[in-house]
Amino acid sequence: MSKWLKSERAINIIIPVFAAVLGLLVGAIIMLLGGYDPVYGYEALFNGMLGSPKAIGETIRAMTPLILAGIAVAFAFKTGLFNIGVEGQLLVGWLSAVWVGYAFELPTVIHIPLAVLVAGFAGAIWGFIPGLLKARFKVHEVIVTIMMNYIALYITSAIIREFLYAGNEKSHNINESASLTSPMLAALTNNSRLHYGIIIALIAAIVMWFLLNKTTKGFELKAVGFNQHASHYAGMSVERNIILSMAISGAFAGVAGAMEGLGTFGYMNTLSAFTGTGFDGIAVALLGANSAIGIVLAAFLFGGLKTAAPQMNFMADVPSELIEIVIALIILFVASSYIIRWFMMRLSKEGK
Predict the structure, then answer these.
(1) Tens-digit pLDDT profile for residues 3-42
(2) Cα separation of 255 and 152, whole Å?
(3) How distant, in Å, are the alpha carbons of 65, 219, 252, 261 from that of 194?
(4) Three-state SS for 8?
(5) Dihedral sign, CA of 209, 262, 69, 53?
(6) How far apart are CA 342 and CA 352, in angstroms?
(7) Which residues touch 8 (CB under 8 Å, ≥6 apart)?
(8) Which pTM value belongs to this model?
(9) How far is 253 from 274, CA to CA, in rounded Å?
(10) Hey, where are the domains in the chain?
(11) Please, are residues 60 and 201 in contact by the beta-carbon 8 Å criterion?
């Protein structure tokens, strides 16, 4: 038992689980202090997540872009970079997917892949810019990506108003041939907004795992992230790998935007504020320990919490804002993982 507690793999599994449990536990204490029934509140939350076919459909629908946003953050982090610009890359991907979905009349087997690829390419371009500035001019990617979030927010809104505006603060709807929705899925889940994008998200998780762990290029990208000087000495192009890493990360984020444009909504609003999905991707990657399977599970938890929050408010009269507090607490406990590591080390010593 003590040997298992010392293994890095075990620690990476236990910390997110422990953080989620602690977050929910502290959330229950906050409910009690506020005069609410935590048992009834969490029962309503569970029903809102998994209590009906529609709840399950909405949970899976919400987790779809979160998986891709989490992958975008994790991919950059695995290669030694901090991509805080996932939100902006998601927005340009969303707009690009909607434009392709609206502007072209194509067979479905061509239209959907084309729209997703164009969205990924747009996100890659948005990630390429901070990657280039980081590689060539040593400009920190955090600063550039944060700034580019705002550029994306206002440029996408301006483009919609100028070229795609359909009134009511939104773009034209995409053509049916570009839609990821399905009458069959709607029927199975009592008219939830579940769509086939979840398949794309799961494929993306596999691609991330395979690229980073089973390819030479993935080894190079991670090596550059671990030690740029040693990588350069070994003959690797540090600049090229930094740019490539940010572009790939941006591509995943762009596809996340396509899931919203082609699946959940079928159009894009002229946004005056961020969607939050790109920033939630940071939390998903953190809770998922930057691993593909961990990100999928974390996205499921976060997606379920967000979709079920109104249900908890409606059934148990618990403010839906409490879910944001729970999510923040989970992130806090993950970020404080050194305490959990210390506790596990103590347990392993006592077990000798």
Answers:
(1) 544 556 666 777 888 888 889 999 999 999 999 999 999 9
(2) 15
(3) 12, 36, 20, 13
(4) helix
(5) negative
(6) 16
(7) none
(8) 0.94
(9) 14
(10) 65-303
(11) no
